[in-house]
## 1
Amino acid sequence: MFPFYTLDTIAEATRLSPPARLSVFGDPVSHSLSPQMHDPALAACGIEARYVRLEVASTDFLKALRTIRDLGFIGTNVTIPHKFTALDSVDEVDPAARRLGAVNTILFRPDGSALGRNSDGPGFVRTVQEEFGAEVKDLRILLLGAGGGAGGAVAVQSALEGCHSLTLTNRTEAKAAAVAASLRDLLPGDRCRTIPWTPEALAAALPDIDLIINGTSLGMSPEDPALLPEGTVTSRHFVYDMVYKPLVTPLVATARAAGAKAINGLPMLLWQGVQSFEWWFQRPAPVEAMRAGLEEAVSRRI
Ligand SMILES: NC(=O)c1ccc[n+]([C@@H]2O[C@H](COP(=O)([O-])OP(=O)(O)OC[C@H]3O[C@@H](n4cnc5c(N)ncnc54)[C@H](OP(=O)(O)O)[C@@H]3O)[C@@H](O)[C@H]2O)c1
């Protein structure tokens, strides 16, 4: 068994039992946890298929897509650095993925054409529903790190859902301002605003926020500074840290100590995977099998 396949070896994976029928394209790709989430789901549903990692160089994206289509794949996930290439390489892009500016899930239709979708946005919505019992549309959201890839996707999806309000901040302010400008049509007036990345501005904003999201990479290292001023997170906040290494980040620990409901980034990884599975198979995904597979894979790595 390979930790990942290449274009030279992928045909071998289709001769395994069960055969490879789904993949994740990436470069590098060996770190991807998606097989550990999708293989238990396929087994739980009795689907004779396997999910594999496929290392694809940027210049080979189209070749890779045609290769797996011709080998009988159902579809593929797409991760760094291909999410933007994928947008221009598929035959059709669904409108939400177009607005998110990236494709992370591809489905082959019976005629061989490729449809590009993005499960990160819907995965965020389902994370909020399942983990907080709330709807994005009802929430006043503060997003730290609005200028990054992950933060940008959450900002767009929050606006697509018509969230009550969206407050964006980012170390590099111009990036948050650009995201806010791109969302004006969806959140007119002062429903979308930016604030400076300062303790004063954050402390002033937090009393009027329901959901706090960390979309930065801060929290991965023990030396990282605290994200929020002391005492500003309270028990009525929902806190969602997109970081999942460590599993209990400083932000999650602080929020839980204040009595707030707080989660790390694993649920979003899970729910975007659930969404992709449901698009490929048009049936409810076995969520608990996927959650168990993902948690086991992460605990081995941490
Ligand atoms: N849970 C999930 O499913 C999921 C999915 C994707 C990513 N993630 C996580 O989300 C985080 C961001 O990933 P990404 O792909 O969006 O990365 P990215 O595109 O490189 O963005 C990084 C973000 O972090 C900010 N940042 C970095 N260092 C900072 C510092 N010292 N102080 C303040 N802000 C800082 C950046 O601000 P500037 O714009 O100023 O540089 C930017 O907003 C990572 O921890 C990643 O593991 C989770």
## 2
Amino acid sequence: MLQFHYSRLSINARRVWVTLLEKNLEFEPILMKLNGDQFKAEFLKLNPFHHIPVLIDDDFKVFESLAILDYLEAKYPTPSFMPTDAKDIAKVRTIELVTVNELPPASIILMKDVLDIPVEDKKIETAKQTMTTAVQYFEDNLDPSNSYFIGEQFTYADIVAGTAVASIPLLGISLEPYPKVSKWLANLQQRDSWKQTAPSPEDIEKSKAVMKAILQNR
Ligand SMILES: N[C@@H](CCC(=O)N[C@@H](CS)C(=O)NCC(=O)O)C(=O)O
């Protein structure tokens, strides 16, 4: 059976978790406590960079969330979340990569601010600017007459961007000025996979000390 190493607050893990649920795959969830589990020798054999998510499929292990999504799509193609049209593939990949490349560095700065870790004002301003540029990019790529980025087809663009955008308000950035993003996110949040993987307010509160410890060294 598939084994999935994750933590409830990890956005990188959540995109894999949503995919496992959306593909109706059976898996064993292995909950990691990020205040030390990721540095244990056994885990470092799975991912020497001490990050979750990690997926194990019998004797095969894979880390890096987008590589895991590629693996799941190729190995378990039904239902498929990758379009076949060239322009649609490019759009999905761009949205995925904007999400994983642009949002995390800015999120780290804003999270530090939320957790009262000292950060220079200039860095906060730049991080906010990056966030708003990314959310505006998503807004510009949504059509209010469609449910998803690629018309009515639910794809990895929705899974990857949607699980990340859901956390942006926690960083002090309102989604209200983005009506298309807000409507799209509200649709996604109706899905069982979103409901099952949404962190509770208690999870968020409990994770703050762990996050603070991780971010203080970055
Ligand atoms: N590029 C990686 C990033 C993974 C990542 O940064 N995971 C975080 C949790 S969101 C983690 O495991 N942090 C603990 C650590 O680095 O020690 C991916 O997409 O899987």
